[in-house]
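Sequence of Protein trichome birefringence-like 35, variant 2 (Stylosanthes scabra).
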Amino acid sequence: MRTQIMLALIKKNMFQLLMSNPTFSIELQVLDRFSRCNSTVEYSGRRIAWLGGAGAGGGSRGSGSDRRVGTEKCDVFSGKWVFDNGSYPLYNEGDCPYMSDQLACHKHGRNDLGYQHWRWQPHNCNLKRFDVKEMWEKLRNKRLMFVGDSLNRGQWISMVCLLQSVIPADKRSMSPNAHLTIFRAEEYNATVEFLWAPLLIESNSDDPVNHRLDERIIRPDTVLKHASQWEHADILVFNTYLWWRQGPVKLLWTDNEKGACEQLDGREAMELAMGAWADWVSTKVDPLKKRAFFVTMSPTHLWSREWKPGSEGNCYGEKDPIDFEGYWGSGSDIPTMHSVEKILSNLGSKVSVINITQLSEYRKDGHPSIFRKFWEPLPPEKLANPPSYSDCIHWCLPGVPDVWNELLFHFL
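Predicted 3D structure, token representation.
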């Protein structure tokens, strides 16, 4: 018994050292798309230390009185969409050489371009209009990094398209698509980067290309793999949500030596991952030196009966926003949002929340649906039924993610 207690203490101390000192390393199997669980057992109930009470590492978590985005007199997240074909879009799809074929809806056949002309109008004030040169001055000698999934990658592409036009072609560059992809502007000594980390913590889905797997495995207690990439950025924009809604998740703790996994539903697994991420934020982010933002869940529009009772479609064919104020579809999970808000509120001024959920809920018209590149040929039966292969998750560009970046600009 004494030997078992000593071994447990050694494991605990090794784990704490690993979490507190990124330069310290132990032999730990790297998760990749070939990783498998040797066995699966029921969830033990183990929690992240930060979630259970005081933050690991002794970091201050702030208080409710600290600065939070959206607590000013004007709530820029509450408003309506106004058609404005004089000021929007903020750039042309064909003028951005870094546009993604997954988001270039006009290029892939969408001719109703009304989705590009909507402006977000807060109820009691005006949103600061995006100014390209002012944004570059904010970024001078800095690294802006988006960290998350393909929705955050869409926001990153939006930001690059918003910014690239004033940089001469020979003074800008884009690195090849990889785990970390970097757009550089020499004149400003600045970068706008995207880090593929759909679950924030280490997982077997961290390959930016080959990540669609039947069994999702995560290390729920550490963000060190990704944090080693993002920790030197000056402005960080995080997101995570949709990947947690794809069924149960397997947990492989860092101190597990036998490859045995525990299984947990997506929402609870997301809470664990957010706890590990929050522990990093609470101990490593000094708001006077580094800005950290968290972008809330991006809604989907998979069931048209939610905004048009009696119909059986989805976002396919939709050309206008929903005009019912307060509309909320099933694509945005309220319990998950409450769990995330609870974690974020404990971080106080260390993280700013950009609440895109409600304003994006109205935009059933803003998705690519069938107007995007599909990486595999579609069978005839699908082609004959457009709603069956419509993308009602991602967003056309120019479009909704440009407003997310206007919000980011507003608060920087």
